[in-house]
From TrEMBL, chains A, B:
GO terms for molecular function: hydrolase activity. Gene3D superfamilies: alpha/beta hydrolase. InterPro entries: AB_hydrolase_fold (IPR029058). Keywords: Hydrolase. This is Alpha/beta hydrolase. SUPFAM superfamilies: alpha/beta-Hydrolases (SSF53474).
Length: 253, 253
């Protein structure tokens, strides 16, 4: 892990890094005790690790909960080159979406599954590298948060990665591999389901939620289309604060 | 409104009352500012205003949020006589449930709709009487909380009662009158849907949730059967604290 920049503002230290050919960013509290939990924050498809809403959520986790948050660009996103196969997929699902074709969801899900296969080992290497940092340490609790493409990556990741102990997903396109991975997952799950998403039928959201083997899981459903997350508190159960704990000595929200 | 007893414990004043032939209970903070919000807490069918879980939830609203909480026995519940027609209904749905008959849900829903018709004006009279108390006052924010039978009462109540400004429902048996009433409701709604309820198909829960005209609504779905509410925080969005406000000067949760 090679740090490429370090800045600090509003109580948050931001360090960008490279890890082999992966580009990423680590946000940390400017002050606080050792042992703070770590959230792995995946970005949705078409965006990257520095998308404004994504950064705002990360800052909020750092300043309110005292967490570290790490995000990496998915293959073909941010500064990372897109393969010829990915280019074809993206062109194909954009055309299907523009034409209102019912095959849109399946093309997108196939693309997501392919990106996920490549991204899972990258996230595992990222966890190894972040836990090796002296200001974080090998034993911090770890959560994963990711919607849409980042959910398609996070579900197979959480299925194989025992260091992740709580996860928040949502906006998933239908793919059998997600159901199979969800059946392997037993950690606490929070799942977000927008009910008016024209691109993703709500039935798959319920089927996927049912598939998680977790006893402690909850689905939050709400009006709205793709990627419109209500930020008025109605989805806020303090999920990571409850499951990862709060860094000792941080102020209460 | 005639108070029949007053006791106090753990910071909560409990006053039982009668209002015509309705029996009820009002829980209030032992100390705190005037103007605290009021929650109308309906009890599920087969229980009454003093059921232990129901009382525990009321105490928590009083001590954590500084709210007043009022509950009345539904017709035929608690100390209130059951009509001959209600006796027949209850016998019929108990038999249908014991036999595993698919008609169970509809018999229960018809019974709930009949109880609701009688209970709605009783709740309205209760609101009038509580708001006339000098330690409460005519202008406090009001929420309604009720599952199962208490949801079947609360939905038509909220449809006709503009003083209710936020409501929490769940566990509803299928009845067309509920869909019609939900379409009249525009206040913030939180809806609880257990996904393994053998007595109530989840499809109706989603249909009813869709019917609420509220822009600010959220459905929380979770594993479990009828009346098994997770109390581990996964459903806790501080709904009433967000929508009714917190009594000024109460300590934060």
């Amino acid at each position: 892990m090679h740090f490429t920049s370090e800045t600090s503002s509003n109580g948050v230290i931001e360090r960008t890094f490279t890890l082999d050919d992966v580009t990423g960013v680590l946000w940390s509290p400017e002050s606080g005790p050792a042992g703070a939990p770590l959230v792995l924050a995946g970005h949705p498809g078409g965006l990257d690790k520095k998308a404004p809403g994504h950064v705002a959520r990360a800052h909020s986790s750092v300043t309110i909960d005292g967490f570290h948050v790490v995000s990496i660009d998915a293959p073909g996103h941010g500064g990372r080159p897109r393969s010829a196969q990915d280019e074809r997929w993206v062109a194909e699902f954009r055309r299907a979406r523009a034409e209102g074709s019912p095959s849109f969801g399946h093309i997108l899900a196939d693309y997501c599954a392919s990106v996920a296969e490549r991204a899972v080992p990258e996230w595992q290497a990222t966890i190894d590298a972040v836990l090796a940092l002296p200001d974080i340490g090998a034993h911090v609790p770890i959560g994963y948060s990711g919607m849409s493409l980042a959910g398609a990556i996070g579900i197979p990741l959480a299925a194989v990665e025992p260091r992740i102990t709580a996860a928040r997903f949502g906006w998933l396109s239908e793919h059998d591999s997600l159901l199979a991975a969800a059946k392997q997952i037993t950690i606490p799950i929070e799942y977000l389901l927008p009910l008016d998403d024209k691109e993703i039928p709500r039935g798959f959201g319920l089927e996927l939620f049912d598939a998680f083997a977790s006893a402690d899981k909850v689905l939050h459903a709400f009006p709205g289309g793709h990627a419109q997350v209500p930020t008025d508190g109605r989805l806020d159960t303090r999920f990571f604060a409850r499951h990862l704990g709060r860094a000792v000595g941080r102020p209460a929200a």
